[in-house]
Each structure stands twice: as structure tokens, then as C-alpha cells.
Design goal:
Blueprint: E1 5-9, H1 19-32, H2 39-45, H3 50-58, H4 67-79, H5 91-100, E2 103-108, H6 113-123, E3 129-133, H7 146-155, E4 162-166, H8 169-178, E5 181-185, H9 192-197, E6 202-204, H10 207-212, H11 218-221
Parallel strand pairs: 1-2, 1-4, 2-3, 4-5, 5-6
Helix pairs in contact: 1-2, 1-4
Length: 223
């Protein structure tokens, strides 16, 4: 009997084209609160959970009492896009192709609640998604390994039987810390060199490129 294998996917910037929406809505949330944070800096922080993103951009010496208001402002601004979110070409097809090859497909994301539901609607592949490790399910978000570990637990596989696909250095660091094989896509806008330095074993242009080259990818190496 073939051992189970898990294909774990980040969502924002990996399966769904949302990173720059997060940049603009976080930038506006900071602006409304009186903080001037360059969009470039916001972009590099996307992928962190809300509280970690705020600390990363404003520093540990900020007044943390304002964090809740900032997160609420971002949620409200970002929610206006929920019915317009678009998955990257090939996203659902890639998940179905992997499921068809016997992989357990699981999501590992900082999103939760209505936001995660909107993202899953955009991907439109719930028929092959076993489950999701969301921000509500872990003590610490990426780059801590908790989300990836939780996703593996859902699939019931050890780290050596899992591949994690993401688009940020936080994804790659989380995967590396958990011991899974980490694969990066460039669709989130992070440079290849940064992703490789953070632990990416392979880098693809996007999920469509990964799907097109699935037979020569790290997924094929582990079948």
C-alpha cells in the first residue's frame, strides 16, 4: 500500500492573486491610523499574520493597543474585494492533478473565517481539498512552522512525505523549520534569490508553470 503524501499550499499570492490587494489595504489601514509605511515594505511583510505584520512594520516599541484597530481596518477594506478575488490560472487544475495522483491536498494560510471562504471560492477546488490550517488553528503563524505542521497533521503524514508550495520568504522559512520540502512560486512578487535563500528547493513562475512541469517537479521525485 502506497504511503500517504501531502501537497500543502499557501493561498494568498500562491493560488489566488491577492498580494497587491493586501498591500493597498494594509497601506490604507496604516494611513488611516496615522502611520506612513511604504508600500514596498508592506509588500515584503505580506504573508505574516496580522499582529506579526504590524510588529514587523511598526516595531516592538509601538503602542500595541492600536493593533486591533489596524487589523479591523484591514479586514474591512480587504473584504470589499471578496466577490472579485481571482485564482491564478491553473490553480484548481493543479490541485486536482495532484489529488488524482494520490496526494492529500491541504491549505496552510494566515487567512481565516470569511476571508478564507472567499479565497476557497476563488480557487473552486473544494472537491479535492482535504482541509485547511488557518490562523484560527495555530498558536503562531508563519514563519513559525505551526501552520505547515498543522496541515500535515490534517493529512496524517510526516514531514518527509509532504511538499509545501508558497510565495513568500515566510512560507519558505516555515516549511524549512517543519522539515518539509518547500517549493516557491514567483507570483507573489518576491525575488527568486530571496526565496531560495529562505529554503526553496525549487522555484516556479506560478502554479500554471508548476502544473505544466509536474512530471519533472519535486512532486514527481516523491511519487
Amino acid at each position: 500500500m502506497t504511503e500517504k503524501r501531502a501537497a500543502i499550499f499557501d493561498v494568498d499570492g500562491t493560488l489566488v492573486d491577492t498580494n497587491h490587494l493586501h498591500v493597498v489595504t494594509w497601506w490604507e489601514a496604516f494611513r488611516q491610523a496615522g502611520h506612513r509605511v511604504p508600500m514596498h515594505d508592506v509588500h515584503r511583510a505580506v504573508g505574516l499574520g496580522g499582529g506579526d505584520l504590524i510588529e514587523h512594520l511598526l516595531g516592538k516599541d509601538r503602542d500595541p493597543e492600536g493593533d486591533g484597530e489596524l487589523e479591523a481596518a484591514h479586514r474591512t477594506l480587504y473584504a470589499t474585494w471578496f466577490d472579485r478575488l481571482i485564482a491564478f490560472d491553473g490553480a484548481g487544475d493543479l490541485l486536482r492533478a495532484l489529488a488524482g495522483r494520490g496526494w492529500e491536498v491541504v491549505l496552510a494560510t494566515s487567512a481565516s473565517g470569511a476571508e478564507l471562504s472567499a479565497l476557497r471560492r476563488a480557487v473552486d477546488a473544494d472537491d479535492v481539498i482535504l482541509g485547511a490550517a488557518s490562523a484560527d488553528d495555530v498558536r503562531s503563524g508563519k514563519p513559525a512552522p505551526d501552520p505547515v505542521e498543522r496541515a500535515r497533521d490534517l493529512a496524517g503524514v510526516p514531514s518527509g512525505r509532504a511538499v509545501f508550495v508558497g510565495d513568500t520568504v515566510w512560507d519558505m522559512e516555515a516549511g524549512t523549520r517543519d522539515g518539509v520540502t518547500s517549493v516557491a512560486v514567483l507570483s507573489g512578487g518576491i525575488p527568486r534569490a530571496d526565496l531560495e535563500a529562505a529554503g526553496a528547493a525549487a522555484v516556479h513562475r506560478d502554479v500554471a508553470d508548476l502544473l505544466e512541469n509536474l512530471d519533472s517537479s519535486v512532486f514527481a521525485d516523491r511519487e
